[in-house]
Write a structure and sequence with these properties.
The protein has a seven-stranded antiparallel β-sheet with strand order 3-2-6-9-10-5-4. The chain has a three-stranded antiparallel β-sheet with strand order 1-11-12. With 184 residues, it is α+β, with helices and mostly antiparallel strands. The longest helix has 13 residues. Bound molecules: flavin mononucleotide. The site of flavin mononucleotide (FMN) has 16 residues, from strand 3, strand 5 and helix 2.
Length: 184
């Protein structure tokens, strides 16, 4: 095996080259993009787009999400210990835009597709799946907190679907559909 160590950028505090490669590396990977919803201490709804999420275990059912300390959803999840992860379908691409930036927060939940679910958490009726979670642990690292949530409820938009899903992924800095599913 040839040594190619010179091609690797190291994290040494000087972020320039390392940071550029890091961003490109992340852009090049295809990840699931979802809408995370929660409630703040006043009972108001909060939501944000997330890619830093993954199932943890099936037994006991759990999933994790990493939230930036500066995001409004971070303090809301910390306060309520509750969140709902909505895996959106291709038909909800327009909605995604409203959950990506602070400035577009007004009207996030004005769409008719939002419903009130377990623990009064908002879920999207058209989401392929919605997971209702209670935080059972968290870990701070850098500017993010990883919240591990016990899945207390799951809701499918089409429980009869045996594999014809239309998931949305994030790759090359944009949302993409993997199928060209035709909707009636
Ligand atoms: C594709 C995409 C994925 C994102 N994933 C995450 C994530 O996993 N965790 C996170 O904290 N922010 C993530 N963000 C950023 C937040 O969606 C956005 O900055 C946040 O809603 C702004 O929150 P604020 O208004 O509460 O500050 C992502 C943004 C985009 C466009």
């Amino acid at each position: 095996m040839r040594s190619k160590i010179s091609a690797i950028s190291h994290f040494l505090g000087d972020e320039t080259e390392f940071g550029q490669k890091l961003r490109k590396g992340f852009r090049a990977s295809a990840v699931s993009v979802s809408l995370l919803t929660t409630k703040d201490s006043a009972g108001g709804y909060q939501g944000t787009a997330v890619t830093a999420t993954a199932p943890v275990s099936m037994s006991l059912p759990s999933l994790m999400v990493a939230l930036n300390h500066t995001a409004a959803t971070h303090s809301a999840v910390q306060a309520s210990s509750l969140y709902c992860l909505n895996h959106i379908a291709g038909t909800d691409l327009d909605l995604l835009d409203r959950f990506c930036r602070s400035g577009t927060r007004a009207g996030q939940f004005s769409d008719e597709g939002w419903c009130c679910g377990l623990h009064d958490l908002p879920y999207l009726e058209t989401a392929t799946s919605s997971f209702f979670c209670r935080v059972i642990g968290s870990h701070d690292y850098g500017d993010h907190t990883v919240f591990v949530g016990r899945i207390e409820g799951v809701r499918l938009s089409d429980p009869t679907n045996e594999g014809d899903f239309d998931p949305v992924i994030w790759v090359n800095g944009a949302a993409r559909r993997l199928t060209e599913r035709q909707y009636p």
